[in-house]
Amino acid sequence: MSDAPLLEVRRLRAGYGQVNVLNDIDLSVGTGEVVVVLGANGAGKSTLMSAMSGLIPHSGQILVDGSTVGNPRPDQMLARGISLVPQGRGTLTALDVTDNLRVGGTGLGSKKDVDEEIDRWFGIFPRLAERADQIAGTLSGGEQQMLAIARALMSRPRLLLCDEISLGLAPLIVQELFGTLRRVSADSGTALLLVEQNAELALDIASRVYLLEVGSVASSGTADSFRENNNIRQAYLGY
Question: Is residue 128 within 8 Å of residue 91, measured between CB atoms?
């Protein structure tokens, strides 16, 4: 059995056009692990997620289970068990809740498998069950984020990439979402890589943390070590 991380990036560089945003990023996520990437606006967090999920080209290496995957497309990363919840929720706004989930479960095989998985996520997100026939674009922001997470999990991924899922949401909704992700990871063994500005909640569920500053990893360590670092605590936790 391989000891290689589920996902690893080595000397990753990526950007947009001639503008380089990421500079030699090294990062890894193990099977079942919860890893958080913290950083201010403009640090390169979303660019990192886009590169790892195949949305933008990169240089350096992306490895899954120890094997280099080159410049993969998003569907190729999904086939390897890596699913993305993009910033801005990314629901299919013209479809109802059930059909959004059905699209997420396209690769499961039989209709029976898809229906069972939909029922599972309706049980975890009862608010979605109550709105099963409602058009996604008419849901509240929190409900759309629940739907985006559930849709990404419909494929039964080994690793879920979450890009700023707390952005623009009420604190109680954010706490609910983070609590659900913690339970899902613990119950199913799904690894999580969270890019977040909400450091307090992210550190509550993280095992390891990376701090991104101006496109580079400025620090990394356990969640406890970040909480004990005065400079990081004052900058990101506010105390």
Answer: no
**For the whole model, what pTM was predicted?**
0.92
The radius of gyration computed from the CA coordinates of the chain, to the nearest angstrom, equals: 17
pLDDT tens digits for 146-185? 999 999 999 999 999 999 999 889 999 999 999 999 999 9
Which residue type is seen at 200? E
Structure token pair of residue 78 = 């999904």
Residue 32 maps to which CATH number? 3.40.50.300
> Which of 159, 196, 156, 158 is CA-nearest to residue 177?
196
Number of C-beta neighbours around residue 235 at 10 A? 14
Total count of domains within the chain: 1
Cα 226 to Cα 239: distance, rounded to the nearest angstrom: 13
Given a contact cutoff of 8 angstroms between Cβ atoms, the answer to whether 191 and 185 are in contact is yes
What are the tokens at 6?
């589920």
Contacts of 68 (CB under 8 A, 6+ apart): 61, 62
| Closest by CA position to 158, among listed 192, 125, 187, 183 | 192
At a CB cut-off of 8 Å and minimum separation 6, what does 1 contact?
A: none
Segments forming the whole domain that contains residue 165: 7-89+157-237
Domain membership of residue 203 (yes or no) is yes
Encode pLDDT of 42-93 as tens digits.
Answer: 899 999 999 999 899 899 999 999 999 988 888 999 999 999 998 887 799 9
* Contact indicator for 134, 94 with CB cutoff of 8 Å: no
